[in-house]
Design brief:
Elements (H helix, E strand, L loop, with lengths): L4 H4 L22 E9 L3 E2 L2 E2 L6 E10 L2 E11 L3 E14 L2 E11 L10 E10 L2 E10 L5 E9 L2 E8 L4 E8 L4 E10 L10 E10 L2
Antiparallel strand pairs: 1-4, 1-14, 2-3, 4-5, 5-6, 6-7, 7-8, 8-9, 9-10, 10-11, 11-12, 12-13, 13-14
């Protein structure tokens, strides 16, 4: 994991820092959606990439018949600066079973990381309250993978995430409403003591933008 430290810092959180990109909604015409948000830390897969600093972000996407594409941007992490993520994918559902396939590339202009340098292929699966996401690194991250499984209990979600070198974490999230959520995250296996395994409390606020 020590060799992966910089690589780990180049992979974005999702818009709410809670997991994989959400499946697209089936639509008969192009739908445009946008949101802005903030959190008290840049929480990513069990780790605080902002060294305790707050993070702000914005998302703009378009979808059509399950296909979607968008741009997510953030104030960035402590190591690499401002972040821009470009993603494309397809999501659908049949008989209660959801599947989502996407590609995301992560850009950090201040660190000269350009489109395609750092990317992931992402598979998301869901059935009822159960969800699973698998991220596989591409290009400079071809040896990296991350998997996360979660279960919803009403407004609560519990999830377990595992990095390729056995760094593991557990998240407990309470979604107060569509805009505000609270997450308690804890590293449960920090490999060789490299990472801060103190419990982390994350407050995330998201505000959709109407067109």
């Amino acid at each position: 994991m020590k060799m992966k430290q910089k690589a780990l810092s180049t992979i974005a959180a999702s818009a709410l820092a809670l997991g994989a990109l959400a499946p697209a909604v089936q639509a008969e015409e192009v739908e445009i959606s946008a949101a802005i948000g903030a959190a008290n830390m840049y929480y990513w897969r069990g780790l605080d990439l902002g060294n305790g600093d707050a993070a702000v972000w914005g998302d703009l996407s378009a979808s059509y018949n399950g296909f979607y594409a968008g741009l997510w941007t953030s104030s960035g992490d402590a190591a690499l600066g401002t972040e821009y993520d470009i993603y494309v994918g397809y999501g659908t559902e049949f008989e209660g079973f959801g599947i989502d396939l996407s590609y995301a590339t992560y850009v950090y202009p201040e660190s000269e990381i350009e489109v395609g340098d750092v990317a992931e292929a992402i598979l998301g699966l869901s059935y009822g309250p159960v969800s699973f996401a698998y991220h596989h690194g591409l290009e400079d991250l071809e040896d990296y993978w991350y998997a996360k499984a979660g279960v919803d209990f009403g407004k609560f979600n519990i999830a377990y995430g595992l990095h390729e070198d056995d760094l593991a974490h557990i998240d407990l999230t309470y979604n107060y409403n569509d805009n505000l959520s609270f997450t308690l995250g804890k590293v449960v296996d920090d490999v060789d003591g490299t990472y801060n395994d103190d419990a982390k409390f994350v407050v995330t606020f998201a505000l959709p933008i109407d067109f």
